[in-house]
Hints:
Layout: H1 2-18, E1 23-28, H2 34-46, E2 50-53, H3 56-63, E3 80-84, H4 90-99, E4 106-112, E5 115-118, H5 119-125, H6 131-163
Antiparallel strand pairs: 1-3, 1-4, 2-3, 4-5
Amino acid sequence: MAKIEEKKPIVQEIKENLDGAKAVVLVDYLGLTVEQDTALRRATREAGLIYKVYKNTMVNLAIEGTEFAELSKDLEGPTAVAISKDDATAPARVIAGFAKKADKLELKSGVVEGAYYDADGIKKIATIPSREELLSKFLGSIQSPITNFARVINQVAEQKGAEA
């Protein structure tokens, strides 16, 4: 009975972290050095992610009956959880970016906006730029034709002014 009481706060913490999460990614961190793990934690913190290592049984209890329940089949071996409440692609992007430097780090699976993805799917999601990058590219593409049009009109006006 005492063991169950000790687990309740941890399961509750996981549930609170998952509440309102846009994306959850499971990571296999086995083989990382202490320096690499520290750098990974720093990178996830700077990106506004929650990155924690929990016992698989605790995560299983917390995700039971939620949109993240499908992740339970990937909870084997050492597993860390990266959670984002703001940017749906951030956990995959940050972890995949770090995995390029630390080849022992592996993406297991994840749930992004309610949809389950295996390791390959999460790697594809990692290539999607952040919302801010997409918006800036979109605005740049809209602004470019307008700017070019304004230059042409200005050149025509200068030519007409020089002729007069």
